[in-house]
Design a protein that fits this description.
Blueprint (H helix, E strand, L loop, with lengths): L6 H25 L9 E6 L6 H16 L3 E6 L4 H10 L4 E5 H9 L8 E17 L14 E3 L6 H12 L9 E3 L6 H7 L4 E6 L4 H9 L2 E3 L4 H10 L7 E5 L5 H4 L4 E13 L4 H13 L1 H5 L10 H4 L9 H9 L3
Parallel strand pairs: 1-2, 1-3, 5-6, 5-7
Antiparallel strand pairs: 3-10, 4-7, 4-8, 4-10, 9-10
Helix pairs in contact: 2-10, 10-13
Length: about 325
């Protein structure tokens, strides 16, 4: 039939056929779901103690994830902190969490159950160690805590890990030379205020809301942790290499610092999951963490420090493939 048509008619017919094929192609593209599947299902995110930065960050991240991953249901669970968080994710009790790099390294070094399954999604913000005392106290150095009641965090927290190490670096045995009190940031400020504690350790982003509120209603100050103390920590090796010297800015807790910066040590926080986590889900999680930085950071200041340029460095954890896929997609 095509042969019996004139040359002009054949050209018109071929052009019409090409146009129809193009339209069909557009319809197929529109109707058939190409690309990565949309993540769905339920996941558990292990956060931290009430009033702590982990929990506040987790709540706001959940809201952001609800916008970006509407088919995923997020359940938040409180925890004692980094050490318990890692155990939960490694055992499958939780799917995602936040933990400090030193706690991760310690978990790996001790080869605790499931340590080889852990993977990193993003480096988030740094925790700063804060040793808080009443302003009128005679305490000036860590070694002055000998014989006193000191809040050292809960057993499963990253605070406990750091507090024990800082005390040891200052020549104090945590179980013999101080009265170590297991308590979280949700109770330690009130216990210091009432006189039940002489001092307490906290490790968190700046400013931590609970410490800020305490300094606003009660006169406190921060004891410095100088570079010599950090050097002694580094001498221990292994997971202590993740600590670095740092300075708490003068305006972090204005009333507690009298306009002066305070020397301390800092350690990075990591967003953690497992090797078995769905790559599409991990990619979506990681994307939301980066994109929501400013929105979350307006309410939880440490989140402002999440940086795409450094988020990829999740040492000592290998980077999850889903997170790697995201970072490659946004690489200039």
């Amino acid at each position: 039939m095509l042969a019996s048509l004139s040359r002009a008619a054949r050209r018109r017919l071929l052009a019409l056929s090409a146009a129809l094929l193009a339209v069909c192609g557009v319809l197929v593209w529109w109707l058939v779901p190409f690309g990565s599947p949309v993540p769905s299902g339920s996941v558990t995110f292990s956060t931290g103690v009430p009033t702590g930065v982990y929990q506040r960050y987790g709540k706001l991240l959940k809201e952001a994830l609800a916008e970006d991953l509407p088919e995923v249901s997020i359940e938040l669970t409180d925890s004692e902190g980094s050490q318990q968080n890692l155990a939960r994710v490694a055992s499958g009790e939780a799917d995602f969490t936040v933990a400090t790099a030193d706690a991760v390294a310690q978990y790996q070094r001790e080869r605790k159950p499931g340590f080889e399954r852990l993977r990193g999604c993003a480096r988030l913000y740094d925790d700063y160690v804060q040793l808080v005392v009443r302003k009128g106290s005679s305490l000036r150095k860590v070694r002055d805590l000998r014989g006193l009641r000191v809040g050292v965090g809960q057993p499963g927290s990253g605070v406990r890990l750091i507090a024990d190490r800082v005390l040891a670096a200052a020549g104090l045995a945590p179980v013999r030379d101080v009265e170590a009190v297991s308590a979280g940031i949700n109770t330690m400020p009130a216990r210091l205020e009432s006189g039940d504690l002489d001092a307490f350790f906290w490790s968190g982003g700046l400013p931590t809301d609970a410490v800020q509120k305490l300094s606003d209603r009660f006169e406190v100050r921060l004891i410095p942790l100088d570079a010599t103390l950090v050097d002694r920590l580094h001498d221990v090796g292994d997971s202590t290499r993740h600590y670095r010297t740092a300075v708490i800015p003068a305006d972090a807790y204005a009333k507690a610092q009298d306009g002066q910066p305070v020397e301390t040590l800092a350690v990075a926080n990591l967003l953690v999951t497992t090797a078995e986590a769905d790559p599409d889900l991990v990619e979506g999680f990681t994307r939301t963490v980066i994109r929501s930085r400013d929105v979350i950071g307006s309410k939880v200041h440490p989140a402002q420090l999440v940086d795409l340029r450094t988020a990829v460095y999740t040492e000592p954890l290998p980077l999850h493939e889903g997170a790697r896929r995201y970072y490659r997609s946004v690489k200039p």
